[in-house]
TrEMBL record:
Leading EC class: lyase
Binding site for substrate: 72
UniProt-recorded Gene Ontology molecular function terms: gamma-glutamylcyclotransferase activity; transferase activity
Stored Pfam families: AIG2_2
SUPFAM superfamilies, A to Z: Gamma-glutamyl cyclotransferase-like (SSF110857)
Keywords annotated in UniProt: Lyase, Transferase
Organism expressing this protein natively: Stichopus japonicus
Protein's UniProt name: gamma-glutamylcyclotransferase
E.C. no: 4.3.2.9
């Protein structure tokens, strides 16, 4: 893999925003296969209303952290906007340095392009 992926890095005083999806337990194995470069990890998150929720996240090994491709970074930014994440957080995503590779397509990007054709 020659590109960076999104992950959660625990750091005191820093928040990670995201979206919670409820899926059937039967679909978890499919999601695990799709996210095969990640390690599944259960974390307790704090919702915007102050309640806590146990969620399955997917995190990459910190030894393999690399800068994302511009297109992948843009997908993350568009997803954050689409789901109403705070502007300050979107600005933080925009400030992440990408790797400048505008030619390579990740398997996920190919799947997304194919899905848009349908």
């Amino acid at each position: 893999m020659d590109w960076g992926t999104a992950t959660i890095v625990e750091k005191k005083g820093v928040n990670v925003w995201g979206v919670v999806w409820k899926i059937d337990l039967a679909a978890v194995s499919n999601l695990d296969r799709q996210e095969d470069v990640y390690l599944p990890k259960e974390v307790t998150i704090e919702m915007t209303d102050g309640t806590s929720l146990l969620c399955r996240t997917y995190q990459i090994d910190l030894l393999t952290l690399m800068a994302p491709m511009p297109a992948y970074k843009q997908v993350c930014i568009e997803g954050a906007r689409e789901h109403g994440l705070p502007d300050y957080y979107i600005q933080k995503l925009m400030a992440i340095q990408d790797n400048g590779d505008t030619k390579t397509l990740t398997p996920t990007m190919v799947k997304m392009a194919e899905a848009k054709k349908d």
